Amino acid sequence: MENKSQPPNQINNNFIQEIIENEQKSNTSAKQLVTRFPPEPNGYLHIGHAKSISINFELAKLYNGKCHLRFDDTNPLNENPDFIESIKKDIKWLGWNWGENLFYASDYFETLFEYATKLTLDGKAYIDESSQEQIRQLRGTLNSTGTESPYRNRPINENVELLNKMRNGDFEEGSMVLRAKIDMNSGNINLRDPILYRIIKTPHFKTGTKWKIYPTYDFAHGQSDSIEKITHSICTMEFEDHRPLYDWLIENIHIHHPQQIEFARLNISYTVLSKRKLSELVEKNYVQGWDDPRMPTISGLRKRGYTPESIKNFCNKIGVAKRQNTVEIQLLEHCIREDLNKNCKRVMGIIDPVKVVITNYPENQSEKLEAINNPEQEEMGSRKIEFSREIYIESNDFMEDPPKKYFRLSPGKEVRLRYGYIIKCTKVIRDEVSNKILQIECEYDPNTKGGYAPDGRKIKGTIHWVSSSNSFETKVNLFNNLFSVEKPDEYDSIKEVINPNSMETFHNSRIENHLLKAMPGDKFQFERLGYFCVDKIDSISNLPIFNRTVTLRDSWAKIQGSTNPKISQS
Ligand code: ATP
Ligand code: MG
Prior knowledge:
Layout lengths: L14 H12 L7 E4 L9 H16 L3 E6 L9 H13 L8 E3 L4 H13 L3 E4 L3 H7 L17 H13 L8 E4 L14 E5 L13 E3 L1 H11 L4 E5 L6 H11 L5 E5 L2 E3 L6 H9 L14 H7 L3 H11 L6 E3 L1 H15 L1 E3 L1 E2 L2 E6 L7 E7 L9 E7 L1 E5 L19 E4 L4 E9 L6 E9 L16 E2 L1 E3 L3 E9 L14 H4 L5 E10 L10 E4 L3 E8 L6 E7 L4 H6 L6 E3 L1
Parallel strand pairs: 1-2, 2-3, 8-9, 10-11, 12-25, 14-20, 18-21, 23-27
Antiparallel strand pairs: 4-5, 5-6, 6-7, 11-28, 13-24, 14-17, 15-16, 17-22, 18-19, 19-20, 23-24, 25-26, 26-27
The protein binds adenosine-5'-triphosphate (ATP) and magnesium ion (MG).
């Protein structure tokens, strides 16, 4: 029974929630919790972002706070409004809503410039005319300190004047930058006079040509959080070393100080979760777009047949920690199976059909058989399927020369048709030239309606089938992992490790007529084959095309035998 006095604990293994929990306990005048999800609009969201979205929105919900959506649109070179729309769509689809709290870092450009001016006036920032290469060289390395730029001690009034001229567009791209004046000897490279502004003359999709200079991510990010009065700035571990810089900036500008908390990014085996690599897959046509069903993007997963619930459930199961890890892709697949197993209708479809003629069944006859829609959900009822002389079975459910213990169809042997009759193979007809099987002939036992022999003879195998009159021909896509190695990030190039067989299309699959009117996004279990989802309606045939979401075999549940996700440490 739910105990109302217990703290809310819907989030699994979440150290950030513990921090907030403790703060709330010790703080009587608790301020409202404000989190944010801050994507850069330079790509589509992926399942790693879903983890971040889920953390931020879930915490806001649990503690009666709010979660902002802020587009960190500080670099006009890679950003565009299409990405804005896709990001909004995906967050909503996942079931989260930012309400009125939609913001853009570009809305703060004026304020950010004021901050930069303040730092410059205070002698804490200067204009550096060194080249990019010089700046990089003088920055030093992890093992050696940096060297001060010859421009570092430029008088304040000159810095202010140059900054204003930079803003006016008086200088060429690359000719100078604004740098914070912190400490070239710092052990933390981020504090060695980081760049705050650079000249970029590309128009911005929101501010047009108004700005000729743009703040760096490091300068914009923390200040934007501060402007929005974010209480908890939750980000991934790679920003841990940037935190001293963010602290320095906020303290020297004298503005609200959000608390930054870092967690480990999500990595999943057999895929990549970096926008740079995902956009490379798209740009080099290794996949058919950001929403290709093989992509780990939210839109790809949606097209593949994933549901918002399954993704949320996955995010909940993996927990939130600081330690780097790689989650096995099987866990994600397990989460969608769990969902679809309960909620999907089961139907029959044949991916790679071979025709079977029941020679002792009259030619112009057919009959209706009863098929159960989901044996685990009685209320989903049943439907009628048609049996007739000509049916299709899966070509790999037949073997002419089978090994022992092969319980599917083979010459002289019997097999049960799911919800149908017992049939026996009497003949195989092959194409004389190609030797390909054209047709299998069988006889059915009229006394075995429903699949059981009244004489009690044992039939071990049951196969799925569709009758030719009660099925339509369409396209079905099957998928494999996008990469052929477990940790593609460890390789230099994507090309080296991309799986050439990640997608297989069958053009002549046959599906029960029951699905003729299925719409994009509709999901079904095809008995024995897996879960499938309508990708789209074919523009020529007007028939639904199917994607396989996952097979039925849950290797995750098999390995685990429990609910504890197996995570390999790296
Ligand atoms: P990439 O590094 O892949 O180019 P990014 O992480 O910088 O992209 P952003 O648009 O800046 O992309 O990400 C928005 C938010 O999502 C950030 O707060 C980031 O920390 C978080 N995020 C991105 N990738 C992951 C991931 N794999 N796991 C968890 N959170 C992530
Ligand atoms: Mg980022």
